[in-house]
Design brief:
Blueprint: H1 2-23, E1 50-56, E2 59-65, E3 74-80, E4 86-90, E5 96-101, E6 104-109, E7 113-115, H2 119-127, E8 129-134, E9 137-142, H3 145-160, H4 184-191, H5 206-214
Antiparallel strand pairs: 1-2, 2-3, 3-4, 4-7, 5-6, 5-8, 8-9
Length: about 220
């Protein structure tokens, strides 16, 4: 009898656990990991996102996003004052984030500050790549060709106050002169020589001269 009771209890507990799990609402299919503040990281970084450096009101801003500083979308941002050697980091949603660059890693607060020679940001400066971890998910932000220049300009501004050079204007090749279009009539008239008014009259044809010689000569009246 005791053995039967021992067998029934585990089976009953398993049935209750299964029933409880079935009653709980399931997460929507394909839902990404979310943090407590509602920010969702789905590990999908658009292919056209890159680093962009902007000077605004005396501060330098480095953003990873669609390149629109004012109204665009960015996944991570750094800002600094010239020669301050300090960076302030922000990301959508606030909270903490684990930043990893190269072999360096650290946990930082939203809107927190760190020196530019911190191992994480020193590695970002040389590689142009940083991983932002939040809510059990990571975003790997990797610089393309233009992004590498933006990262270098940003840290040069933070450390030395050096502003980037403005882009050189694109020089357009001079346009070739268009040839004036000439009509067939103008072309034919230009091909024919123009008679010289000072030249002596041309000799008449021989037939006209012979006809004149054969004409009767009137007798001189006596």
């Amino acid at each position: 009898m005791r053995r039967r009771t021992r067998l029934v209890v585990p089976v009953f507990a398993s049935a209750m656990l299964a029933l409880t799990s079935a009653c709980q609402p399931s997460a929507p299919e394909g839902e990404a990991a979310a943090t407590g503040d509602g920010l969702v990281f789905d590990d999908a970084v658009p292919a056209d996102y890159d680093w962009a450096f902007t000077l605004h009101g005396g501060s330098g801003d480095l953003q990873f996003g669609d390149g629109d500083w004012g109204e665009g979308v960015h996944l991570f941002a750094l800002s600094c004052l010239p020669r301050s050697r300090q960076v302030e980091m922000t990301w959508p949603g606030g909270g903490e984030a684990v930043l990893t660059a190269g072999t360096a890693t650290g946990t930082f607060e939203h809107a927190g500050r760190a020196p530019t020679d911190h191992p994480v940001f020193a590695a970002l400066k040389t590689s142009g790549v940083i991983a932002v971890g939040r809510g059990g998910s990571d975003l790997r932000l990797s610089a393309e060709r233009d992004g590498r220049a933006a990262v270098a300009d940003f840290f040069a501004y933070c450390d030395e106050g050096r502003e980037p050079r403005p882009p050189e204007p694109v020089r357009e090749s001079p346009a070739e002169p268009e040839e004036a279009a000439t009509s067939d009539a103008e072309t034919s008239s230009e091909a024919q020589p123009v008679p010289d008014p000072t030249a002596p009259p041309a000799a008449r044809p021989q037939a006209d001269a012979a006809r004149d010689d054969a004409a009767p000569v009137a007798a001189d009246p006596a």
